[in-house]
Amino acid sequence: MASRAKLCILFSVLYILHLNFCHGQNAVKAGYWFPDSGIEIPDIDSTLFTHLFCAFADLDSQTKNVTISSSNTSPFSQFTKTVQLKNPSVKTLLSIGGGNANKSAFSSMASQSTSRKSFIDSSINVARTNGFYGLDLDWEYPQSASDMTNLGNLLDEWQAAVSSEAKNSGNPQLILTAAVSYSSKVDGLYQYPIPSISRSLDWINLMAYDFYAPDRSNFTNCHAVLYDPSGQASGSSGVAAWRKAGVAAKKLVLGFPFYGYGWLLVNANNHGLLAPANGPAGPDNGAKRYKDIRDFIAQTRGTVVVYNSTVVCNYCYAGTTWIGYDDNQTVATKVSFAKQNGLLGYFAWHIGADNNWTLSRQATQAWGA
């Protein structure tokens, strides 16, 4: 009896270690893709990534189920098998929500145990049906203390459900992640549920961008600075806030943008950071893909390119057009920062905006082995 009991304990320990080994991550080199991103799935160079996020699944506000729109059914169902043709080891995750999602629907869903169960069960079913290795919650953003409490309940129940599903099905356990504010408090007010995040998610993606935009400021600025001596928003301050709140560095993945914002200068001769500006340069609030920024630089005579090592960002200007963005040196510095500070890795929003994989390749080279 004693020998059998010891063997049972030994096998249990080995099983747990096996699960942890299989499910643990050495590093995350990730990027988001969506159908209208400007690149087709077969053209994705998945060799540059360990993980790819497919965005976005929807939350039905009535049923509280996770669904995939009819227009995305085919690309989403083919996503994993297609990107694995070039890189069989790349892991795919289905991202739910996004910046344009119905925020009240997420708040309502998370507020009741029955609706949380509908969300959780349907998310697992959709992930398995479409061949994804994990699920990513992109709720932008919980807007009250009760939202944060309910989010914690959701994450804990989600983790319990994916664990149970894996044991019952014999499938590898689904990865669970969330895209979150760059800092541990939304708008400096609402604290994320740190204990639930720490125990129930494999990692969180810190959206360290969109700090500034032409519609919110009359001065030029890089929207995704790594440092800010003035004490305002920055990637490094966000990481520090999450660490201070109690989240381990190995749960943090630093995000950076493959797009920038164009501003109209008030005076073409005043073209530095924080120069007076008069709205966006171009449509979509001046948002410009990295590939389009490179085209602008190449095609616009007299364009000056600047790298600012103090805040870590690039900007360029020509005439009254000023564009802040991340270029090779900025990306390399951010990736090095993430690795040197013990973070799990990095991600980019979004890979379709890259210029012939220039930034994606720079990022993976900067991280190294």
Can you describe this structure?
This protein is α/β, with parallel strands linked by helices and 369 residues long. It has a single domain (26-213, 221-257, 326-367), classed as TIM Barrel (Alpha-Beta Barrel). 36% of the residues lie in helices and 23% in strands. It contains ten helices and 17 strands. The protein has an eight-stranded parallel barrel with strand order 1-2-4-5-6-9-10-17, surrounded by seven helices. Strands 11, 12, 13, 14, 15 and 16 form a six-stranded antiparallel beta sheet that branches. It has a two-stranded antiparallel sheet with strand order 7-8. A hairpin with a 2-residue loop joins strand 15 and strand 16. The longest helix is centred in the middle third of the chain and has 25 residues, at 145-169. The termini are far apart. Keywords: Glycoprotein, Glycosidase, Hydrolase, Signal. GO terms for molecular function: hydrolase activity, acting on glycosyl bonds. This is GH18 domain-containing protein.
